[in-house]
Hints:
This protein is mainly alpha-helical. It has one domain. 69% of the residues lie in helices and 0% in strands.
Amino acid sequence: MAECLTHLESKILVGDSSIGLSIAIAIVFFWVSSLVLLLPLLLSETSLFWVFWAVMGRSFLHTGLFVIAHDAIHLSLIPQHRSVNDAIGRLAIWLYAFFPYEECRSKHWKHHRYPAQIGDPDFHNGTNNYPIFWYFKFMREYLPLRQLVVFLTNWGLIFGALNQIFAINLANFLLFWIVPLFLSSLQLFVFGTYLPHRGNRSSSTNVHHAQSSQYPVFWSFLTCYHFGYHWEHHEYPQTPWYRLPAIRYFHRNRAIS
């Protein structure tokens, strides 16, 4: 088993810089290109079916921006080049919602240090664990008043520029940029925070107080880039998101054997 673990660590645990960079470039490219294509779209001439799937696709790509930043925070995006890793993470989280990278990194490491307990910025307030209240507490951690002002100011300036220069209307701006951000925040909260950490801490069977989803790999990817494999992420925080299924497979086989 020691040999298997050593092999796993060398082949899986640490991210591959070329893979991480390729994924980051692909997500940013499709995020930008889809935005360029959809912002001037004539909604009156477009089927609601295609508008719906365009919004869903944009939401998934928006979550991808956060995932890039998340892996950068763990130095698993481009582990061999720290400065490039952090630069891409900083860009991704800025594109996501104008968040400051260093502040997000600090809060995320608190989540790993104090999972599902007081001190964890992603956790509920200790008493009210209803999803809606937990979600608003979750959002307040990342959008305090100062950051909310930055957020709204930037959105106003961007829309003003797009409207004046390219005649982009408000409906398109909201539908293909703001709504995907909101849906992405729900996706990250539900599959990356609420479902993994909603259990009773006193009855938790692991130090991370995290439980993983039982979704097959394909659905795990679609729901939230494998964030549902949450115990695996907490146990191996240096492992990039795309290798979490391999970690899960390894531990399942070890349990069976």
